[in-house]
Amino acid sequence: DRKILVPFFTPFISPLIPALFRVAGYDVENLPLSGSESGEWGLKYANNEVCYPATLIVGDVIKALKSGKYDLNKVAVAITQTGGQCRASSYISLIKKALIDAGYRDVPVISVSFEDDIQNNQPGFKVNWLKVIPVSFRAVLYSDCIAKFYYASVVREKIQGEAARLRDNYLQLASEAILRKESKQLNVLLQSAADDFNHICRDIEVPKIGVVGEIFLKFNPFAQKHIMDWLIGRNIEIVPPVLTDFFMQGFVNRKVNVQTGMEERKMPEFVYNWIYRFVNYQIAKVNKIASTFRYYTPFTDIFKEAEKAEKVISLNAQFGEGWLLPAEVISYAQQGVRNVVSLQPFGCIANHIVSKGIEKRIKEMYPDVNLLSIDFDSGVSDVNIANRMLLFIDNLKEKVETYDYI
């Protein structure tokens, strides 16, 4: 009986979140994209030892409740949790402490998590995951494809603004399909989207930059100081991060953890294998449809991605972005994308260890890879970020090189 507020995450999956929660029986509202005021409230009610994403999310929540827009007796706050060593695993207690300090003691904080080790007793919040997960997975695949279409098109569009218009239109249509409980219709919409994005593109070659890093920074426009838009404004194509691989890595992590004695097997192995084959079948169907867009880069097998990463780092490195980050960098290199920027919160220990720790090994394997790590916090200046990015892209547009796949 409460409206559930969720922090804004990304322009591609966030528009679908209210519809997905409606399938589960809940009234959810996205908070607006963070702004400078979010950082100020976050610094006041969190502390300067938490990471930048946590500062913004706490600030978003406090800002919303102070707006006077919501009935405090009929509102709750939800946050996703993945567990593990990251300080983000403390989001629930961090947000709850901020709410108490700000005078909102009775506003519940809900954990949205598949993990058993996230302790958050909220008996009023129950989700039938068997019902929700298939719809959510289709939505994630769909939103990732729209992102791939958009970033390839926006630097090639014949008429300025067409790519953004199509992006917003097809996310709205997807939301409506989910609300009608017709999530299988998403593949039909995807085919239509591929055709429409094809029509707005000029056949031109443009330089490319891949984006990796901490999950919130690489997906949230304000947190990254709109770096992707900045690059687009210079006619550089973004090869975007995708959420699908972030969730698919769980199949690899579970298998590795069982093999190395880090966790016990909860079901027979053939059950896990069957689930993976089923999920992979769904991805293959999406790849077939989306590949009709001529600039589409297909999703790959996550176990093959893990094999690439294992040449650089142990697959037991699952904190932060873990082994997935070097896997993404190598995948970019093998696609011919040799310029990669890693976006991370200042002091994000896990992400710093992985992103900067693997750089030397990556350079040994791919000497012409140009990897730039940029740190963000509430005090980082726009000028500092712009200067580093200008140096990074210097000469990138002088000559667009075509690399053979390795």
Task: Describe what this molecule looks like in 3D.
- This protein is α/β, with parallel strands linked by helices and 406 residues long.
- The chain is built from 16 helices and eight strands.
- The protein has helices at residues 17-23, 36-45, 52-66, 91-101, 129-154, 162-179, 186-200, 215-219, 227-232, 243-259, 269-290, 302-310, 324-334, 349-357, 359-365, 382-393, and strands at residues 3-6, 27-30, 75-80, 109-112, 208-213, 237-239, 339-345, 370-376.
- A four-stranded parallel beta sheet has the order 2-1-3-4. A four-stranded parallel beta sheet has the order 6-5-7-8, sandwiched between helices.
- The longest helix is centred in the middle third of the chain and has 26 residues, at 129-154.
- The radius of gyration is 21 Å and the shape is globular.
List the helices and strands and how they pair.
Blueprint: E1 3-6, H1 17-23, E2 27-30, H2 36-45, H3 52-66, E3 75-80, H4 91-101, E4 109-112, H5 129-154, H6 162-179, H7 186-200, E5 208-213, H8 215-219, H9 227-232, E6 237-239, H10 243-259, H11 269-290, H12 302-310, H13 324-334, E7 339-345, H14 349-357, H15 359-365, E8 370-376, H16 382-393
Parallel strand pairs: 1-2, 1-3, 3-4, 5-6, 5-7, 7-8
Helix pairs in contact: 1-6, 2-3, 3-4, 5-6, 5-7, 5-11, 6-7, 7-11, 12-13
